[in-house]
Amino acid sequence: MTKLWDFNGGVHPLPNKHQSTSAPIQQAGLPDQLVLPLQQHVGSPAETRVQPGDRVLKGDCLADALGSMGVPLHAPTSGVIESVLKMPVPHPSGLLDWCIVLIPDGEDAWTERHPMTDYRSREISQVLARVRDLGIVGLGGAGFPTSVKLRSPGDKKVMTLVLNGAECEPYITADDMLMRERAAEVVEGAQIMAWLLKPERCVIGIEDNKPEAIAALQDAVGDSGIEIAVIPTKYPSGGEKQLIHILTGLEVPYNGIPADVGVVCQNVGTALAVSRAVLHGEPLLSRITTLTGQALAQPANYEVLLGTPISHLLARARLNPNRLERLIMGGPMMGFTLQTDSVPVVKTTNCVIAAAPGELDEPPPEQPCIRCGACAEVCPMELLPQQLFWYARSEEFDKAEHLNLFDCIECGACSYVCPSSIPLVQYYRFAKGEIRTQRIEQLKSDQARERFEARQARLEREQAEKEARKRERAQAAAKAQARKAEKPDQGQPSKDDRQAKAAAVQAALARKRQETPAGAASSEEPAPKSSGEPDLKSLRLQLAQAQEKLATMEAMLTEARSAETDNREKLERAVTKNQDRVARAQVAFDRAQAESAEAANHHD
Amino acid sequence: MALTQQTSPHARQARSTSQLMLWVIVLTMPGLLAQTLFFGWGNLINVLWCIALAIGAEAAVLRLRERPIKSVLKDNTAAVTGLLLGLALPPLAPWWVSAIAVISAIVMAKQLYGGLGANPFNPAMVGYALALISFPVAMTTNWAAPMGLASAPGFTETMGIIFPGQQTTIDAYTMATPLDVYKHDITTRMSAEVTGHPTFGDGIARGWEWVNAAFLAGGLGLVFLRIISWHIPVSLLAALVFMSLAFGTNPDQYTPLSLHLFAGATMLGAFFIATDPVSAATSHQGKLIYGAGIGIILYIIRTWGSYPDALAFAVLLMNFAVPFIDHYTPPRTYGHKKPRRGLASRTEAR
Description:
The structure holds two protein chains of two kinds. By secondary structure, chain A is of the alpha/beta class. Helix content of chain A is 45%, strand content 14%. Mean pLDDT of chain A is 87; it is low at 518-532. Chain B has 18 helices and two strands. In chain B, 54% of the residues are buried.
């Protein structure tokens, strides 16, 4: 007998499982069209590789995996791609997402398959690639890419491989029927997984309300060494964290994964899918889905091609449309209501409940919380749901997080027992969503602030540099001014003045020389050039110097104006004087330039 | 096709607040029966009077607050507050004492804080404490004498005492409670002499022992039906036992343990009053601390304070401590090494 542990809390809702277990698994048949969402798993959506009009065979890859968490998507049957467009997908919000629409041709013709019966002589990476390339994801609920979980965690050894056959949620019997009818393949899948992970122990956990499945598996395991652990029926024992605790006594650490404590947990349906993929080369094309609820005349489990619209399934299970009050994908504890029956079955659709009026709970109006603590009694994660509710409602999210809001697995046990019929889980979803939004916004605003601060710093730096240059110039100017004040005759400006005058004189002389007869000019040809060239150069220099001086004086003036200092008038005069000086230098330079150009024309 | 849109879970256990309260009311009946048998009609009349007052006061405030009246009254919590006061007040307390207690409980302690679920203090105990401080004589010494010790008033006579407030003849029917008698007489006499007082009878305390046993039985019913958890009553009684054994084993000096457990409001308080979930601590560990605190304060005031019984004060004092207790006693969440005690810090929230 396997040693078992108990987890805190839990509830015992009415099982309602017998309705769908009286008949064997049925074939759901071929619908008119298959709608295949590109994202049916946790991770990045697949990238479509087909075009409308393409003809595909059963098992052909329709969309490639993207990224390390991606999984590809395959054609569940042969047919023609009609379109790739946004359509309603199974999601609580009635979300639209990209889907490939495939019109079956009715032939169900297979593409080439490559069984890998000799997997034990292959490389582990080859088998893992096979699991990934054939689109296998966890079929228990979240749709986590199976190959990622089956990759050995490297530094840590996997001690226990857990197969989850607990199926604790009411109404759902898909795993139960699968274990009853396909136990051998489940065991084969478990053996493949065990070969990949090399655990010390491989154990299948099943709730004790499934005696047929237990018997079938016990037959199938034989002497393979795989344990079968029959666990007490209690919701949510099939939660990954709860089942791991029940079977090993270990707890998955906060923010960690099961591999951190040496455990890998896989659903029994996933084991079967792995076995089909490795031993038969079949991609994940169909799954077992429970169709139940009082609005159906033939509740049962159906083997459904992925992408089959719910409406097709409901018709197959003989729905009485007048009795349909609520359509739930998933179980009554964690499932969500659908807005339309046009959404398709995806890889994670384990159950569809077509409930008749009065079959499921119609919650009375919410009443105040009386802190009775019934929720805390049943919480399998040992949270304080009533405190979380209080903080979620008053939007004190930091306090809710402090009380481990993000450890909530949303199993609904708290809402199930709440005497005030408070939709607690909804409050937690709201709080989680708000916190995530706030974090994204916080990140955005942090980035914006960093950008702004960086820009501000750059502007300040530039401003400071500009100021520094200005100050240097001002100091230079002040020094010059001081020198000028001491010896007004020897001041730089007057020197410039004289130079300009000298230049003007020289220019005039040059002009004179050019006016001399051509013969003389030709004999003296180099002379004007040699005298004209330095002439222009020095004039240009003088002009530049005068301009720079003017700029300095103007800057000083602006500064003085803004500072309202006494020397304003003096500076104003200085600027005017410098302006004149620049104008003169300009005139002299222009003239010299024009003359030298004229001279050049003459020579040519 | 109009499909119902509903958030999960879609299944619910059918046990509402109103039903829980109804169970509380039902399980106080053995105690009320014992009170009526041993102390006359007083408690029964008080219970009905207080329930009527409580419902009336609640309806009036709901009307002022413009809240739905019918659906709120249906939760039966006002009735429970009235009931608990009716059980706790002296059987022959005049109508205006109970009226003041009930109205202050419902209006001040409950509705002014925002109604059900928002009150930090146990409403019934707020009302009781107010009456106790305002009318100490009527509330402590005038407990109806147990049957057979004095001439017991009949039903109409009791009505006459309670309602017109004709307290002139009341001394003929009342007697100090055993806790009161023992506490005062033991200072001057020996235990054997004290217990010779007729109020103690042949057992622990005439009448009181049966009333407490009946509330204990009802309280065990609450635990059995999982309407309350065992933590508060057990830790309360355990603390009372511990205090008595640690400090007051000498019966010639201190009230003996048997009297602490089976006289006064001990069992009513431990199972029906201290367990009011709204004003009690939340987690299991918190409840243990909360209950033990009440037990310790109860013993301290009974022994060294000036009141013979102290349940209301003990409960109210621990109500003050509840937010503090809650911050430091969260359970250890699955996957965490230890519980996250104390307040949320800003850095952690990031």
